[in-house]
Each structure stands twice: as structure tokens, then as C-alpha cells.
Design goal:
This protein is of the alpha+beta class. Helix content is 20%, strand content 22%. A hairpin with a 2-residue loop joins strand 10 (224-228) and strand 11 (231-234). The chain is globular and about 55 Å long. The mean pLDDT is 96.
Length: 353
Amino acid sequence: MIMGHHRQIIDRSGGRRLCLYSRKPRSYKHFDGLPAVDSVSPHLRRHPLTGDWVGIAAARQGRTFLPNQAECPFCIMVDGGPVTDIPVDAYEVAIFTNRFAALSAVPDLPPELGVATAPGLGICEVISYSDTHDASLATIGVERISLLIEAIGAEAADLLEVDGIQYVLPFENRGREIGVTIDHPHGQIYALSHIPARMERQAAAFRVGNPLMDEIAGMAEELVISQNDHGVAFVPEWARYPFEICVVPFRRVACPAEMTGDEIAGYAALLDEAAKKLDAVFEAPMPLTMGWHIAPLGYEDVFHFHCVFQPLKRSRTKMKYLAAVEQITGLFLLDLPSEQAAAILNGLEQPDE
């Protein structure tokens, strides 16, 4: 299956850009959208005990907070209507510069402090899955998810070619319960000038083998959520979150940009099924975070691309909050064993009230 996509790039004020992805070439009616945000350049400060970088980005304090649908900045624009961040009359998938970015492609020099500092070099983008305000990954369908995979793959591959960028993370935060401030179906992409320590440990694991394929080979059948010729979605035995789902293509690729058309279609079907089953657990949209794990720079020859859904609801009335021991030590405590979570996702058991 050969799919392919068309990308139209629109340059906007303040060095921003809007990339519109569609299955076929199409024309758009353009408007003047929301202006760039003037802000203090972000910078990084190094934690002296862990060596981790902490990003300081004052502009984010003023970011859009829970607008009503009529004022949603990710909806389309129409004559006489509200001004948005996607100033066209219709679109399929849009990726654009985040007005309230935590990082900058051209950061200023950092302040001199008592701890080590560095420029806040990086690129922050927003991914809108659909111009339909109340859509979601669970409702846009396999064809649109396929286009989304292609768009994210193309964008990630481009970002990893940018001088100074070492790691790219496409991700989604979903649900007001976890602090999402815009309801429109969307994710983000962060391109960083360093590889975070946790991500480097994850990537280094592939230097000595393929832990994902090893787990799949020995996995109990009841942990499988969905499977086809091109990959599998499953609840990992090492899950840290209730109803966590890992989605892995069978062929090792470093980035979705390396997938064939058939592989993209198969992977889209797995993401679609996983998203639908998560929303079915409590018969409501599942609050979650979701990460697209792409090879960091230097690990392209060994890393195995995969996606992980991290749901944050453990019963109809209870959220999974990261408490002190988890935040401080990184030791996660899971109330719902993987085997039971898989049974609930597969409709074999009922969730707790």
C-alpha cells in the first residue's frame, strides 16, 4: 500500500510556521491568525544533585487556559469569526510553532547563576489531529491516524536534522483531570538539545538486544490488546500506569518516517483499537499521557520505535496521582496488575467503581 501525503508550509510572523498535512494536494483560504507572543528567552538550569536540566520558560505562565469552543485557538478560521492559531478555513492534520514555547530555536545567552546554566535551545510545536473540535484519537479513524503517523514521522525526521537537536518527543496530554488547558484534539512535539537521562537509559538498552521484541516473544496471550501482521498493542508486564498500553511495530524502525505504507496502515489500526478500548473502560474519554518514542540522535541503528499510552485513571472515581515516593525516587506503585488491566481492556472483567 502506497499512501503518501502532501505538506503545505505557511510562514507566519515571529519566525513561526504552519505545516498543513493532507492526503492529496488541496487549497486553503488563508487569514491573519493569532500574533506571536513576546517573551523572555527560555533557559536551562542544571540540578546540582541529579545532573538533570530544568527548563525556565516564563512565557508559559500566560498560555491559553480552558477557552470555550467558540474561542478555541486550534479550530479553523472563518470570515468574521474568532482569530486562531491555525488561520485557514479547513485542514486535516496541522503542525505549527507553539506560541508559548518552553524552548527557542534562537535562545539568548542564559543568566549567570550559582548553578550551571545553558541556553534554552529547542523547538516546540503543536500537532492538531483534526479541525473537528470534539474529535480524539479514538474517533478520527484509521485513515486520519495514518496521515498523523506520516506527519509526525516527517516532522521528527526534519527536526533531528536541525543543528544542535539530539532528541525529539511527540506526545499527547489528554483530559482536564491531568491539567490539559485546551480541549481540542492535539499533541505536541518537543525537540531538545540534549537527551534526557531517562531517555538515554532507554535507548542504551537496545545496544545489548531488543527488550521490546524479547518481551513480545515471551508474552502471555492475555496481555495482547490488538495484533495484526505489522505490530502488536499490549499491556506490558512492567506497566507503571493503570491500563498502560505499549504499541510496537514488528519491524524495527527508528522513526515512523521509515515505515512502509502497509506498516503505517497496520500501526494506525493498532493505535485506533488501543484508543477505543481505553475510552471504553469507563465509557468516557480516558485521561492520559501518550508518548511516541523515537530514536535519539546516535541510536538510530538499534532503537525500536514504539508508542506508549499512560492512562491516569484507576477506577471510575479515582485518579492515579504520582505521590511522593514516585516523584522523588522514580519507584512507581501500581494498584492494578497488568493481567487484570488487560482483562478489563478486553472486556473480560469489569473495572472497579
